[in-house]
Amino acid sequence: MIRYVARRLIGAVPLLLGIATLVFFVVNLAPGDPALYMVSPGMSPEVIEQTRVAFGLDEPVHVRYAKWVGSVLTGDFGHSFTYRRPVLDVIMDFLPNTLLLSACALALAFLVGIVLGTIQAVRQYSALDSSLSVLMLFFYSMPSFWLALMLILLFSLMAQTVWGWPISFPASGMTSTGYEFMGPWDQLKDRAHHLVLPTLSLALVLTAGIARYTRGSMLEVIRQDFVRTARAKGLPERTVVFKHALRNALIPVVTLIGLYIPVLFSGTVFIELIFAWPGMGRAIVEAISQRDYPLVMAASFFFAIMVILANLAADVLYAVVDPRIRYE
Amino acid sequence: MKKLLALALAGAAAACGGDDDGRVTFSDPFCAEVMPRVQDWVAQQHDASPPPDDPRYGGTVVVAGIGELAGGMNAATSQSYEGRQHQEYVNLMPLVNYSADLEVRPYLAESWEVSDDGTELTFHLRQDVTWHDGERTDAHDVAFTYLTVTDPATGFPNAAFWDRYVRGPEGVEVVDDFTVTVRLEPHSEFMDPWTTLGMLPEHLLGDVERSELAQHPFGTVCPVGNGPFVFRSHAPQERWVFDANPAFPEALGGRPFVDRYVYRIIPEGTTLLTELLTENIDVYVMPAPDQAQRIIDTPHLEFRSFPSRNYVFVGWNARRPQLSDSRVRRALTMGTNRAEIVEAILRGYGTVANSGVPPFHWAYDPDLDVDGDYDPEAAAALLEDAGWVDRDGDGVRENADGLPLSISIKYNQGNQQRQSIAEIMQSQLAQIGVAVQPQVVEFTALLQQITAEQRDFDGVVMGWGVEFKLDDTDLFHSERGDAPYAWAGTDNPEVDRLLEAIGAAADREEGMALWAEYQQVINEEHPYTYFYFSQRLSGVNSRVRDLEMDARGEWVNIREWYVDPASR
Questions:
Q1: Is A283 on the interface with B (CB under 8 A)?
Q2: What are residue B392's phi and psi, to 5 degrees?
Q3: How far is A59 from chain B (nearest CA, A)?
Q4: To bridge A23 with a disulfide, which of A225, A300, B122, B323 should be the other Cys (CB 3.0-4.6 Å)?
Q5: Which residues fall within 8 angstroms of residue B32, CB to CB, at 6 or more apart?
Q6: Cross-strand bridge partners of residue B182
Q7: Residue of B nearest to A154 (CA)
Q8: Torsion of the alpha carbons at A36, A60, A289 and B532, rounded to the nearest 10
Q9: Is there a contact between B300 and B279 (Cβ–Cβ < 8 Å)?
Q10: Any idea which of A302-311, B241-250, B358-367, B558-567 has the lowest mean pLDDT?
């Protein structure tokens, strides 16, 4: 197993180099110019030209490429054009926020999705199954940014201004204004409170998909001979469902993690924008529109690494949940 | 799984630091050294001079806008509007500032005088202003700031500020600790740069390489100012937190009424409005015109609108044969119902512009005789006059060589207002025989097309924000014809002469006559179809009192804002 992981990691190196090259040329050959973003009457043209030189944009593309690859290999991603700080510092400001949000959404989606899918499979064709199916389909076909706006409308705006509910959720930000002055326990509660709506908007769509997958996979397993045998042995239904059927039904579901992580990252772009969540997705979109080349390149590179790692993790998990699978 | 979640949350909470009195820790070496000194100083000043016994003192005000304070408090290298507002009124101090009627009044400088020949400007500084780490602000800081911003290596954005000043060490002299002299050529509006340039601390930044200054953590990680508010913390794309400066000079009004001021970044307008309605923010900077009614209709909110310095226009590329004749350009304006467009897309929150001089400005000529009103017949007559006649009956005019009067108007993607302008012009100008093709281009790509040498456009919808010191030289002077901003490609000796005369005018009185003449000439030359000066809008929770917002900006008197004690 360790050898397999090592081999996969080594295999990822040329892949990353290829991604780095592709990202570099896509970003640098796109029309537009980072220095031009500063165009305004308060900005003298000669200063714009000077900025271009300071950014190293006066050099030909191939020279810039060689320099970039060279510095990336030494772990230096350069300075962001817009934040005027080392790109790694900027990414470290935003990445943890995105990871926190995506991890919560992923955890919630899998937890709820698997539970609902299992219930549906066990109670196939019941009223509960059908109504859950309809509900899941409803969430599945909903764009997450729209869902986000609806959640804000209901649980922030209406809950506070019209209905006066005792519970409402903040529409934006990661923490409250007085966060620095709270005790550790209140800080934790405050963070959790702010996580609710963005996590829900990200997770609901995924939950629906996972529930469908789990239901399908579970239905297939539950009809197999070993489950029938387990029942015939007189095992309690609980053990049959959770130990014998569910564990086998989860095998295909687990691989979804690898598939969903890239989906999740693209989903965070809108969610972070709407909920003013200071994350990577928002930073990257802004960086693209401002042609902040170093930040765009480094951020795409990091996302690529994370997707590769997520896929690897899914493959490893696959072996963990299914002892029949061996990587040699 | 729940445990894992709690752990992740706890980890994230711990990573952000902060203890009981809200002290923030900094990892950057410069900040780690400087900020504890600032925090100690503030705590000490706070104990030494508690707020006076007045119900107005206390509370927190939260302002939110869609964008970061780009460049932060680095007055030498940043140029964003919001960033500069915070430098001028919140964290730093310029030498002087503008009153509501745009007269220059003392601020960090108690007084100033100009030598008789107009070549020496001497400032006498206040002696009771300290940087937030306890060092006194003195003439050496002013000299340092001046040397920094006039050195091209720094990349100070508005280099034109110093065109008539003597740059570098020759240009500045420290007379004594609180007196400093700068040298200049006599010109009008020479005080303007000093109203917007926040002074920087020499004792902290004196050793920084000027070309490295833009990247210094001082700007956005841990600025140390001397203004009414002390920097506490900044989480990028999330918020800036400032505390009242307990030692702000009494003569300038003393400490601010609010204890804490927070600027939040919320990129989505719908979310901003929600936060305003649910009272999580007190001020929403720049709501969209279509959100205005909702704010007006909400009892606990106040709606503000005040003149801005931003105008929107369609720039005509006079290098193109269709547009080289000023009569054609004028006809395009007269054939467009600008008043109706402004009413429709700004819901009335704007005024039709006929030049780049804002209506509130002293240089604005209200009696200007312009042919700006919607008059399709006069427009058609002008076109005929210029030799554009529909010769083949296809509804589009041609000139004698058979070139059809067909132009594209480019606008940037995602800007609804500019798209509407291009589309409405298309339909209205079709009626006078001009074929217009609106064309959408991504913003940065569009900037490249119009600034690059090829000038790949006929017409372009753009916006400018002007300084109080108006200067169209980069836009219309023929000598700058190759420079990036010469979109119109204007080549008119009258315009050149007036631009030069305006720059050299000795005072406002002389300037006023020149400006009036200039506005007339620009109207005849017609490089742009000016559309409108928009109003800046604000939604304010009425628990915050005494906000003054005008053409100078939103933050002008933030020191005097206070929170109604009953609703803290």
A1: yes
A2: -110, 10
A3: 17
A4: A300
A5: B25, B26
A6: B121, B172
A7: B274
A8: 20
A9: yes
A10: A302-311
User: From residue B367, how far is each of B26, B124, B338, B378, B450 by CA, in Å?
Assistant: 57, 40, 19, 21, 33
B-proximal residues of A, 217-276, CB under 8 Å: 273-276
Handedness of CA B200, B205, B207, B211 (dihedral sign): negative
CA distance between the termini of chain A: 7
Name the 3-class secondary structure at B63.
strand
Q: In 3D, which of B411, B516, B507 has the Cα closest to residue B459?
A: B411
Residue type, B378: A
Write down the pTM of the prediction: 0.91
Tokens 């002087």 map to which residue?
Answer: B96
CA A308 to chain centre: 13
How, if at all, do strands B528-541 and B104-106 pair? Answer: unpaired
Which chain A residue's Cα is nearest to B66?
A276
Give yes or no for A55 touching B (CB within 8 A): no
How many other CB atoms are found less than 10 A from the CB of residue A1?
11
Which positions 146-205 of A are in contact with B (Cβ < 8 Å)? 149, 152-153, 156-157, 160-161, 168, 170-175, 177-181, 183-184, 187-188, 191-192, 195
Distance of CA B563 to the CA centre of its chain: 27
Q: Are A210 and A252 in contact (CB under 8 A)?
A: no
Could you give the 3-state DSSP secondary structure of residue B367? coil
In tens, the pLDDT along A49-105 reads 888 888 888 888 899 999 888 888 888 888 998 898 999 999 999 999 999 999 999
Write a three-state SS string for B70-95. Answer: CCCCCCCCCCCHHHHHHHHHHHCCCC
CB pairs under 8 A between A and B: 193
Q: Which residue of A has its CA nearest to B274?
A: A157
> Does B7 lie at the interface with A, CB-CB under 8 angstroms?
no
Query: Strands B301-316 and B350-352, how do they pair?
Result: unpaired
Handedness of CA A269, A271, A275, A279 (dihedral sign): negative
Beta carbons within 10 angstroms of residue B165's beta carbon? 20
B519: CB partners within 8 A, 6+ apart: B354, B355, B357, B365, B368
Q: Which two tokens stand for residue B237?
A: 């794309």
**pLDDT for res B7:** 45
A51, A168, A274 member nearest B268 (Cβ): A274
